[in-house]
Amino acid sequence: MYSVQDGRFIQVILPLKLEWEPFYSMEGTVSVGTRVTVRFAHRSYVGVVSAIDAKPSKEMNILPAGLSSLPPVTEEEIRFWRYLADYYLCTVGEVYKAAYPSLKTEQEAVEVRIHERLEKRLLAVQSKLEKAKKDSVRERYKADLARLQAILEGNRPPFLEGDENPLSPQCENACKDIQSAFFAGRTALLEGGIGAERLAIGLELARRTLSAGKNVLLLVPDIALTRHLEEQVAAVFPDLLVYHSARTSAARRAVGSAIRSGVPYIVLGTRSALFLPHQKLGLIVVDQEQDSSYKQDSPAPRYHAREAAIFLGITHGANVLLSSETPSLESLYNVETGLFAGIKLQQSFQQETTLVNISVEQRKRGMAGAFSLKLLSAVKDALDAGEKVLVISRSRQAQEEDSAEFNRLYPAIPAESISFITPVGIKLLPAQAFPLAVIIQADSLLGKEDFRADEKALQMLRQIPCRRLLIQTREDKHPVFQALVNGLSGLAFLQERRAFGYPPFSRMIDVVVTDKNEKRLDYLSEVLVGTIKSALPSEVTTIGPFTPMHSFPEASPVRIIRLLFPKNSSLRCSKAILLSTVAKVEKERKYPGHIHFDVDPV
Questions:
Q1: Cβ(25)–Cβ(62) under 8 Å?
Q2: How many C-beta atoms surround the C-beta of residue 537 within 10 A?
């Protein structure tokens, strides 16, 4: 053991759920961000120095830290981690663990060992070259030297900057408006148009950013969209870096190495790309910003990549562009209140929407099984005209049934004339519009208990690229369908949100309790509700505990306590009270590991 008289001390972030950052003694020169090897609770960890010349309590016994061979993290990374921990009510150690999971750390260690072996091999070849007499042998050693040097330097050629891509007048005007917003220090929201137009604008802004000596991060909500866009982006930027969990460990390691090397870069990736060791970041584009896949649900930090990207932009002084055909209500509200700058693209085609009330058609004998005669007539007319038809089924099983039925009804029609998908496939559809799209059971899109259900349904329906949309429903007067028919945006739902005090007019936090013992779960959830209510200000609304809709039978039972906080200056204080209150219940009731927070749940 070491006492405080033994010399210099540091504080270290460990990849653990700790409310404090342990002290260690350290010899030699280190700085904030240096990686060190330490012991904690009889186990070894790689930590990150968070403070130097620290002053521990005189009663503490301090263990020594050793210098790690792993590359340091940047101070911007640590600031980013602290923001996420503070906002999403977790510890900075949990964020560090998410940014540098054990596998990633092991991969970095492997890379360091490989690098060391290559350097030794390089010195050996240089020595042999100096001693070689024959020209043929010297040439062979020179070739070996060149190969080894290329590998050590990352084997990455100078960045090939994309050619200027002529934009349509509408897109060029949007670019100018976005850059004006950036100049004023505002986040920009690009709304409407088609995916190809928004992508072209994003790539042109990326080209200008790279020309100014800054780097670019393009975020997409899921791996499928990354693969969908990779070829298009690489056609403009051949040196594109791609980062997501389906890539090999070697490929992900190469992306981190390329960024650390200081070469210019553009990264296309999912939300985990936020945790790369970014340098000189100048532009962050969040494509399909409304997509719920941007929300991390487990483990901590349970962050939303859209909000995290905005803070990452602040950390690096980078511009942030949110992009969507159907933006989230939160982003639309931020435009309405002046926080974001809104830029709109006009649709290249007009969509005609027809609602078919199934209940009415059944009374008129206007149904043939699951299909209305109106739907079948519209499909037949389109096929007779040589047009393609898109059929949207509620699920994979329903898709198979609908496909079999259409094949029976139209046996002579080529298979490629009718495309069948489920709602999750809509975002991967090509940009060109289908002449006709039909939704068989649209009522399945309307959630009954999720306060975001209407917003999500309207977003999904607006993403369907078609000139005519025919919807079968029993609820043709539903606000979602009426908003679609009347060309209203998601802002049409704001009045209801305001009336119930839901986001964006409040901040929502779910206190999530899990326990295999359901009787104990119910009892302690009720105890927790009472304790939270008595501790928080009366202006905080408490709902629950309730059981979530989408509980899985194989998972532990869950109860949720939903809290709605006013968006005012007391929010930070109220969150601190919530943290301490839950910690007190965990300690007094001996109930650790059962409770977590979900800030801004989707």
A1: yes
A2: 11
In a domain, 95, yes or no: no
Are 364 and 453 in a shared domain? yes
Burial of 404 (0-12, 13-18, 19+ CB in 10 A): exposed
In this prediction the pTM is 0.87
Element (H, E) at 544: strand 541-546
Nearest to 263 by CA among 318, 205, 210, 317: 210
CB-CB neighbours of 382 under 10 Å: 21
Burial of 56 (0-12, 13-18, 19+ CB in 10 A): middle
CA angle 432, 435, 437 (to 5 degrees): 95
Q: Label residue 2 by pLDDT band (50, 70, 90).
A: very low
Which among 540, 465, 477, 467 is positioned nearest to 509, based on CA atoms?
A: 540
Looking at residue 492, the DSSP 8-state letter turns out to be: G
Distance of CA 439 to the CA centre of its chain: 29
Reference 277, options 24, 504, 77; nearest CA is 77
* Cβ neighbours of 582 (radius 10 Å): 22
Within 10 angstroms of residue 394's Cβ, the number of other Cβ atoms is 17
Q: How far is CA 315 from CA 80, 117, 237, in A?
A: 7, 36, 26
Distance separating alpha carbons of residues 425 and 399, to the nearest angstrom: 12
User: Residue 497, class by beta-carbon neighbours within 10 Å (0-12 exposed, 13-18 middle, 19+ buried)?
Assistant: buried
| CA dist list (Å): 299 to 291, 485, 547, 560, 586 | 19, 40, 20, 16, 19
**Domain for residue 85, yes or no?**
no
Scored b (16 or more CB within 10 A) or e, 278-295 reads bbbbbbbbbbbbbbebbb
pLDDT tens, position by position, 493-549: 888 899 899 999 999 999 999 999 999 999 999 999 999 999 999 999 999 999 987
The arithmetic mean of pLDDT across residues 232-237, rounded, is 91
Instruction: State the total domains in the chain.
Output: 5
Q: By residue range, what is the domain housing residue 119?
A: 105-152
What value does the mean pLDDT of the chain take? Answer: 89
Is the domain of 444 the same as that of 558?
Answer: no
Looking at residue 304, which CATH number applies to its domain? Answer: 3.40.50.300
Instruction: Judge whether 1 and 63 are in contact, CB under 8 Å.
Output: yes
**In angstroms, what is the C-alpha Rg of the chain?**
28
